[in-house]
Amino acid sequence: MKNKGLIFVISAPSGTGKTTVINQFLLNHKKDFVVSVSVTTRQPRKGEIDGKDYYFFTKDKFKEYVKTGKFLEYAPVLDNFYGTLKETVKKSVNAGKNVIMDIDVQGAMKIKFKIRDCVTIFLLPPSFSELARRLKNRRTDTPEAVVKRLALAKKELKERVKYDYIIVNKDLNKATENLEELFESIYKLERFKRNRP
Questions:
Q1: Is 167 exposed, middle or buried (0-12, 13-18, 19+ CB in 10 A)?
Q2: Cα separation of 112 and 108, whole Å?
Q3: Taking the CA atoms of the chain, what radius of gyration do you get in angstroms?
Q4: Residue 2 belongs to some domain of the structure
Q5: Where are the beta strands (DSSP E) in the chain?
Q6: Do the strands 7-11 and 119-124 form a parallel or antiparallel pair, or are they unpaired?
Q7: Is 134's pLDDT higher than 90?
Q8: What pLDDT digit, counting tens, does each position of 155-192 carry?
Q9: Where residue 63 sits, what CATH number does that domain have?
Q10: How many domains, in total, are found in the chain?
């Protein structure tokens, strides 16, 4: 019988480079890992694909899914809603795939409460000023939205103490390497637990 996959929850303030680090890691690990695609009610950014980057829902459709209990977790973030579908995570884990959940702090804490053996990781920017620089330079938000994201980032950074592990994303390759080392050490621990008499 195939072992069930593990669940890794990764959070970071917007602009930290979380998605880039995850994608870099997946280049060599697509066989064993999948990223849970979140649902959002925000508009797609340039180049984003429905079903690959996010499932883009209307607010009415999102509320309908909430009513019918289809979300593992969901939360309002700034002016939109984000959520994780139960069924997609369940299918991947049961197929032996390790699931990376790229979700915000609110969602991460809900997952940690519901799935006690999940592993939570917080990706930290090298400094708040560097985070502000990255957000402004990516030019995907209005100046007003950047101000909102930075205010939210201050609150999220305080929550990092609730996570199992912290990785600083100063350099993309180093952060990816740290993520790989962390996953490898967790695997060894899980193999030890499963093989105990």
A1: buried
A2: 6
A3: 17
A4: no
A5: 7-11, 33-36, 39-40, 55-56, 71-77, 80-85, 98-102, 119-124, 165-168
A6: parallel
A7: no
A8: 999 999 999 999 999 999 999 999 999 998 987 777 65
A9: 3.40.50.300
A10: 1
In the three-class reduction of DSSP (H, G, I as helix; E, B as strand; rest coil), residue 58 is classed as: coil
Q: CA of 45: how far to CAs of 10, 40, 138, 141, 159, in Å?
A: 21, 12, 11, 9, 27
Q: Establish if 36 belongs to a structural domain.
A: yes
Q: With 0-12 CB in 10 A as exposed, 13-18 as middle and 19+ as buried, what is 181?
A: exposed
> Would residue 1 count as lying in a domain?
no
Residue 35 within a domain? yes
DSSP class of 43: P
- Domain interval for residue 167: 7-195
> Which residues make Cβ contacts (< 8 Å) with residue 100, sequence separation at least 6?
8, 10, 22, 26, 33, 34, 35, 36
For the stretch 22-61, pLDDT in tens is 999 999 898 889 999 999 999 998 889 998 889 999 999 9
CA distance 12 to 160: 9
Q: The tokens 């990764």 sit on which residue? A: 10
pLDDT in tens, 64-81: 999 999 999 998 887 899
Q: What does the block give as tokens for 84?
A: 């994780």
Close Cβ partners of 60 (under 8 Å, ≥ 6 residues apart)? none
Beta bridge partners of 194: none
* Confidence category of residue 195, pLDDT binned at 50, 70, 90: low
